[in-house]
Design a protein that fits this description.
8 helices; about 40% helix; two-stranded antiparallel ribbon; 2 domains; 6 strands; Alpha-Beta Plaits; about 200 residues; four-stranded antiparallel beta sheet; alpha+beta; globular
Length: about 200
């Protein structure tokens, strides 16, 4: 099983009550999913997390596929009253291991390329890294790999599917769509009601 890293977008920032429910939910006890809680009186603080950061979860999930990992967290987040997943994305900064997972190469292969293909037009150098961890730009790595003949999508297919499914589920949330219409669209004939 692999560990998959991604950001899951939520329908809203967590309230203090939802954060408490999240913290006491067995599904999140392993610490693989984390959130940022904004201050209650944000206007009193000169610096606070931006709205996008407050509406997402940082996830590092073990699962057979990325799609399975996203589905696992999306299902579990519904255990917290009022919360649901509405989208998913990757961040640009990655470790070489995360980059290898995204492009289908082995970590050893990317490490070797990073050592042997350095320099102008070569493998991109690290962007930054707290506490000795080197982070690279996924966009730059993908461009380099394409330049040497690899077929590398900007966004992995599983992530595209997961994001579109979550967006559709969000649009259908609470809508009154007949089972016949859902079936005609190739969708399940029952859809989750309001979270």
């Amino acid at each position: 099983m692999s560990e998959w890293s991604f950001k899951l977008r939520l329908n809203q920032p967590l309230t203090p009550e939802q954060a408490d429910a999240f913290d006491h939910c067995d599904a999140f006890a392993d610490g693989a999913v984390s959130y940022t809680l904004g201050p209650q009186d944000a206007h009193q603080y000169p610096q606070h997390p931006g709205p996008a950061k407050l509406n997402e979860l940082s996830c590092d999930i073990e699962a057979p596929t990325l799609l399975d990992a996203v589905a696992q967290v999306a299902r579990s987040i519904r255990l917290v009253p009022g919360l649901r997943a509405v989208g998913v994305h990757h961040e640009d900064l990655v470790t070489l291991g995360e980059a290898a997972q995204r492009c289908g190469r082995s970590g050893q292969s990317l490490e070797q390329l990073s050592r042997e293909q350095r320099g102008p037009g070569g493998f991109p150098g690290p962007e930054s890294g707290p506490e000795g961890t080197a982070f690279y730009s996924w966009r730059k790595i993908a461009e380099f790999l394409r330049s040497i003949g690899d077929t590398v999508p900007d966004t992995p297919h599983d992530l595209v599917i997961a994001n579109q499914a979550l967006c559709l589920a969000d649009e259908l949330e609470g809508c009154d769509v007949s089972p016949g219409t859902l079936a005609a669209l190739g969708l399940p004939t029952s859809w989750p009601g309001p979270g």
